[in-house]
Amino acid sequence: MQTTPPVVMVQSESERLRARVAWLYHIENYTQNDIAAQLGINRVMVVRLLAEARRRNEVRVTISSALSDMIALERELEATFGIKQVIVAPFADAEGDPTKVIAAAAGTLITGMMHSGMIVGVGWGRTLYNTLPFIAGAALDDFRVVSLLGGISAARRFNPAEFAWQFAELFKGEGFLVTAPAVVDSPETKHALLERCGLAAIFEMADKLDVALLSVGGISALTTSYRTGYLSEADRRSLIDAGAVGDVLYNFIDKDGNVIDHEVNARVISVNLERLRRTPERILISGGPEKLEALRASLVTIKPTTFVTDEQTAGALLGSTAARPERERA
User: Fold this and answer.
1) Is the CATH code 3.40.50.720 the one for domain 67-329?
2) What predicted TM-score, i.e. pTM, was given to this entire model?
3) What is the C-alpha separation between 90 and 43, in angstroms, rounded?
4) CATH architecture of the domain covering 2-61
């Protein structure tokens, strides 16, 4: 295992002691008994301080050794869907929620990708939000973050604006937010907001993105997006009847990855998928049984350069997908 140094704001004697214990254990590889003897405390206190440092996210641990089973899944997904890089996080619980393991794997990837001078477009959702504790921030010059869709007022911490702002803060960058709802009442309102209120200029930044961080939403259940009031249960049912299997940035797509002909899509304030596909690096971060159909469709329509998911989702995509290998689809 490789570890990054403890990240702490040292303000008190207890914080200094905790940071010193974490440093000696994780960086200098002292045993707990050695640390206790060196600092004049007992071993039980050392154990407690190490646990507290982990709880506070002051120590981040990354595992660099490859897992052969995961590599096999990664390579097969790459070949089947024509993806440049797939990262599969180990996850054994077929009935569980893989959000955290996907977020952890994505956080490590994102940390290594970010550098000065970048323009990064970000989507929204629980998985993306959960990457934040796993990203090691840095002060980057000329670093800009662009939210790729409007706000979701009732989604609390999963609001697109909240994620974009916190992500920009990690790298001391500028954040560009879409100051409008994700779904408005009519195409006319959408046109007015884009053309008369300056929002078009933000979406034009999408043409200059270096990286887009994206997730997908399923539509089979009444999930967060539909509880906000922007889309009712009637809207959800109507979208399903029209062939929708899920959405990318509120662009609702069918099983083949096509944006469906539905009035909801005409009222969405977000970057369209055609524009998104021109981004050089498209990172899709998502998983879970309720998203399988949406994921299959998004792999076709977004054509991500990198896909981060979990072991169970990867196996399900390969085991039940009707997709043919990329070389056969060409």
Assistant:
1) no
2) 0.79
3) 32
4) Orthogonal Bundle (1.10)
